[in-house]
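> example.struct
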């Protein structure tokens, strides 16, 4: 594959999404990887953040992230959208909905427990 341009230097940075990942990791203990590396001749070379890295012909730059940061705090996400991410989009578990987004879902009924969700979210503002 060829492109109409070439890059000789690369400087990986920190995206806003990493702030969210760090917050989720702090609150839940989940490990959310955020790494950038260069694959050169089959060797994986760690690319350190905010440093220039010399790229050579044939190099591949790979960035693994734990997910995008979205907009706003996780516990402010619309509970119905969280429910949809559990059952329709299959992006998270019921446990992650509760621990990260502070949305309590009854697994038997597959419905939001609105009273428990409001209570859980309210407890955050008092902490």
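> example.seq
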């Amino acid at each position: 594959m060829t492109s109409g341009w070439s890059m000789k230097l690369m400087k990986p940075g920190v995206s806003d999404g990493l702030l969210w990942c760090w917050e989720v990791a702090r609150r839940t203990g989940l490990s959310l990887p955020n790494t950038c590396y260069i694959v050169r001749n089959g060797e994986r070379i760690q690319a350190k953040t905010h440093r220039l890295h010399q790229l050579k012909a044939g190099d591949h730059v790979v960035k693994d992230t734990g997910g995008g940061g979205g907009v706003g705090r996780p516990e402010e996400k619309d509970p119905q959208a969280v429910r949809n991410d559990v059952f329709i989009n299959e992006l998270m578990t019921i446990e992650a909905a509760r621990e990260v987004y502070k949305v309590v879902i009854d697994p038997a009924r597959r419905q939001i427990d609105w009273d428990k969700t409001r209570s859980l979210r309210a407890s955050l503002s008092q902490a």
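> remarks
Residues 1-5, 16-20 have pLDDT under 50 and may be disordered.
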